[in-house]
Amino acid sequence: MRVAFINQPWNAADPPVESGSVAIWVYEVARRLARSCQVAVYGNRCRVGKRAEYVEGVYYRYVSTLLDRSVLRALHLVSDLYRPSYPYFAHWLHYLGYAVKVSLDLRRTGCDIVHVQNLSQFVPIIRALNPAIGIVLHMHCEWLTQLDPGVVRRRLEKTDSVVGCSEYVTEKIRRRFPDLADRCRTIYNGVDVRSHGTRTGREDGAARRILFVGRISPDKGLHVLLEAFRKVVQERPAAQLDIVGPQAAPPVASVFRLADDPKVSALVSFCGRDYLTCLKEQVASQGLERVSFSGAVPHSALADRYAAADVYVQPSFTETFGVPIAEAMAAGVPAIGTRVGGIPEVIEDGTTGWLVESGDARALADAILRLLGDNDLRRSMGISARRRAVNRFSWEHIVHDLLSLYHNVSRTHEESFLESPGTSVLSPGAQPTGCQVR
Length: 438
Hints:
Elements: E1 2-6, H1 21-33, E2 38-44, E3 52-55, E4 58-63, H2 68-77, H3 96-109, E5 113-117, H4 122-129, E6 134-139, H5 143-146, H6 149-156, E7 161-164, H7 167-176, E8 184-186, E9 209-213, H8 222-235, E10 240-244, H9 252-255, H10 262-265, H11 275-285, E11 291-295, H12 302-307, E12 311-314, H13 323-330, E13 335-338, H14 343-346, E14 353-356, H15 361-372, H16 375-392, H17 395-419
Parallel strand pairs: 1-2, 1-5, 2-4, 5-6, 6-7, 7-8, 9-10, 9-12, 10-11, 12-13, 13-14
Antiparallel strand pairs: 3-4
Helix pairs in contact: 1-17, 3-4, 8-11, 8-15, 13-16
């Protein structure tokens, strides 16, 4: 089977990928899938003159987005003129050049399955130029249920399968488009359960470490975590809070204005301010000396951070899955998360960690203190967390589920395509030579 992945054009796709959760997902899946399929990955050309390479059995094809940049600037300038349910990043002009170039190359090389990440506006372009290809649209966010339903429907009708990164995402799509529900399927995000081995025990007298990994952004709820930590250190003054990740607040339109949760919408109050500066001011005003901001850390270096942690905390107001939670669990670290989005599908409340309401600093502090103060509970939850990560979120499980999906899509699409009048098995101009670098 010949499979092509289309990366988000703003992500660096050249291997090894060390940042961007979606780009990491594509990289990890592609190199494992290449053991049984011909695999190509399309991405932005980040290095001048670099057009293609072959790494770990995967063909990486790099597409210039130079011509898209002027259009993107114009879209940003007029974004406030659009209706809220049709923001600039959902517009058909958003990275149109990138989509057309990839679609034309797919038409020339001929693949069985093309797997698109998040950008539903690419689907009609791919379908128009490649009628014989099976199209999988993979949603790592909630855009399909937040954007204009008429626009989304027209795109989904040209899609063979829609994948959600959690049942939370998938079920919302099914409810919004019930007649297309049979095309929807959940495939969880994955973690490398071998690199995130079980953590070693810490001496009882050692200072306890609390860890957060992710974007430094208001929707991640770090201001709530700092308030909770202030309460924690009143009882455990030696506790340490490590905050790892880059400052990368999402566009207002993509999170705050589209949200159906008033708690998320209220975060717009942070817009126009430097969130990291706000957090550091909060730390200084509350005298929280044992808080560290590590900034961006390569993904390959995170294993050591998880291994050093006693408790992992994800205080998000919105989260479709929560990859760092699963990574911490794979390292044998119990996790505390908010009861939002896909987090309850990752954390098994009371077994692998605790769930609390978003924005509730007191409940978050109580959960942290309970785990820090009970070595046996922390150890047993860590063991259960590791077991759940291995059984549910390993890359091997994800690739197995994807292969099943691809075979089903390929069979179903081929049958429906052959039944259509005036069609042939290959797109016009396509060559049955696989996704090859030329």
